[in-house]
Fold each of these.
Amino acid sequence: MSIQFYIDEVPDIVIYLETRLNFCNVNYKCLTYTPIIVGKECVPYTNYNEQGIVTIYLSKDICIGDRVGDAVLQISHEIIHCIRPPKAYAGTNVLEEGLATWFAYEYTRHRFAGTNYGNNLKPSDKSNYLCAFDLYEKLIEVFPDCVKHILHDNPNLVIKDIKSKHFEEVFNKHRGGFKDEYKAMINALILDFIY
Ligand SMILES: [Zn+2]
C-alpha cells in the first residue's frame, strides 16, 4: 500500500478517537508520517521534537504488500501518543501504552468490522503491552472517561506524568470518591512502561 493510503487513514482514526472517546487534544495537525526503517529496528514508534512536530514511524514491513489491517493497528496505537505530545520523548507509562493498545484494537475492530480481520482481532501476545491493555480495561470498567477527565482538568499534563493524585481528584469529582480497592490498579498504571 502507498504511503498516501496510510496517511488518508489518519483523519478517520482521529475523528473516531475524538467522537467515541471525547479526546480533543489530539495533535494530528502536526502529524507527519514516514514509514522508514530506523537502524535495525523495525518497530513502530512516535517521535516528538521541540517544535511540536509529531512523526509516526510505522514498521517497514507494513509497507510491503497488502497489510492494511496491521498498518491501521499500528497507526491507531501511535495516534494515542499524539494526544498532547511531550516536547521530547521521555518514555511512557503503563497507562499510556495500555490506552494505546486498547484503542488500537477498539478502532481496528471497528474499521474492519464484519471482515475476518476485524472479527478475529484480539491481543494475543504475552508482552507488557498485553498487561498494560488488561490494566486499562480494568480502569475503564470502573471509570470509562477517567483519562479524559484527568487531561481536561489538567491542561498542561501529559499522560506519562499522570500520578495517583490525579486519579483521586477525578474519582472524587465524578465518581463520588476514591476507593482503596483501586489503589493497586492505579499504582500499576502509573509505573514507567518497560518495553
Ligand atoms: Zn506505544
Amino acid sequence: MALHTPADLRTEVLDLLSLTTEAHLRLAGLACARCGSTAPLRPGGHAYTRSPGGGRLGWAVKVCEGCPLTHPTEGELGS
Ligand SMILES: [Zn+2]
C-alpha cells in the first residue's frame, strides 16, 4: 500500500502504517488535520486510526482558522 495523506484526516479510519510523515504531524496536532497548515491551530475534533486489536484509536486533532471545525456529517447535510 502506498503512503498517502488524506484530504481530511477526520473523514476515514486511518491505517498508521500507510500515512505519510506529514499526516503523522497532523495526527499529533502539530498541523491542521484538513489542510496541513501550521497557522494558528484550534481543537478540531478527532481522527481515528485502526488499532492492531481491531478497534479504533482516537486522536485529538487540530485545524487552522481557515478550515471548518467539523466536516459535514450525514445528519448535517440536510440542514
Ligand atoms: Zn487548515
